[in-house]
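Observation: inputs received (chain + nicotinamide-adenine-dinucleotide).
Thought: call the complex predictor directly.
Action: predict_structure
Action Input:
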Amino acid sequence: MTLPALPHEMDNHTFRLAVAQFDRAAELMNLDPNLRQRLKLPDRSLVVSVPVRMDDGHVEVFTGYRVIHDSSRGPSKGGIRYHPEVNLGEVAALAMWMTWKCALAGLPYGGAKGGVRVDPQKLSRGELQRLTRRYAAEIFPFIGPDKDVPAPDVGTDAQVMAWIMDTYSMQVGFASPGVVTGKPLSIGGSLGREEATGRGVVYVTLEAMKHLHLDPKKATVAIQGFGNVGSHTARIMHEVGAKVVAVSDHTGGLYNKNGLDIPKLLAASNDHGRPLGDIKLGDRITNENLLQLDCTVLVPAALSEQITEKNAAKVNCRILAEGANGPTTLEADQILHDKGVFIIPDILANSGGVIVSYFEWVQDVQRFFWKEQDIRDRLHEIITSAFHRTLEFSNKQKSGMRMAALMSGIDQVAKAHLARGLYP
Ligand code: NAD
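Observation:
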């Protein structure tokens, strides 16, 4: 059977990476060819124009996207990214990864992602609010607690979610906290959501260390990206006794071979509000050099395709814990595998965010809120059992962790499709 060509409007390198990973996993698991065609492309892709009145009075039109890759197992779930390079292909790739991620963790969700092509740093607070509200209004028919539930991603935060929640609630005529996750606590957010992705990265890394007989107290950690994921990963790694030797953001990085003073660094960065380039709490290091540091754990927690065939041979870590989505290309993956790097793939390593988003949604829908310790315990239980299922599957199939995680997620989605059948 010939498989469909990728729609040209989606055909970019990130989407090609997601599809190539899917194809490899589908081949290994001998996936039904009809399902293979169906799962390669998203259910629904929305492109919207977002006109915004800027502070100086002129109107600027931004392009926004919302892609729902699959909703066979429940409402679709996925973040919203504000970044100047956002495009349909990238959003479609991220939506596909969300589908496998939710299925791997056993959450009753499908996968989606959204974004607006904009540099949020260049907008005033008022412009950012108007942009968010108009984008929310444009995607309004497709989102909702039972339909599609957005969350924060690169360039968006709890405040942006609050504006989306408010815009949606104004349209339906009542408060609807379950329409987004990652909200402020005052409107139905969950304790532990903000740190959840970083905490999940640490939980699975500790499991990997146990498996490899490594002592966390003797481990060194390098982290690329010091936003939501990177900064909480750094803080919690430091709390469990690992030595965080390097961190970076878009302005470059800081390095100290004896370990950075993470609490001091977090305070100086105003909880990742101030760029690391302005802070003098370590030696300067470039993002490129950070990725090549000799360390126990490397955590890419910024953007995708940072580890490629060009630099993979120089990566010098024992464990690669992918905080970011799609940080490693397929070619780089093979090189790392051959070097014996233990990879905790993105759909497993960074699933703490969507797991606690699920808890937030459950709490909103039930109007019953949990204690922070309950959130941490349940996150630990779900993410570590996903880790061990993946490890077992990887040993059984003699495949790497990435393919094992993908196959396990795809298998759950395939079962849902086969049970439901093809409509009409
Ligand atoms: P964020 O916007 O809070 O932070 C992004 C960080 O990356 C910032 O420190 C920024 O300076 C840095 N950065 C940007 N460009 C860079 C570059 N070229 N080199 C080095 N650093 C650069 O975003 P986030 O929410 O922390 O997301 C980071 C990654 O984690 C993304 O891939 C995202 O999809 C993924 N992720 C996020 C969540 C979540 O809950 N926020 C969940 C799962 C996965």
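Thought: report the result.
Final Answer: The pocket of nicotinamide-adenine-dinucleotide is lined by residues 152-155, 197, 224-230, 248-250, 287, 301-303, 323-325, 350, 353 (CB under 6 Å). The chain has 14 helices and twelve strands.
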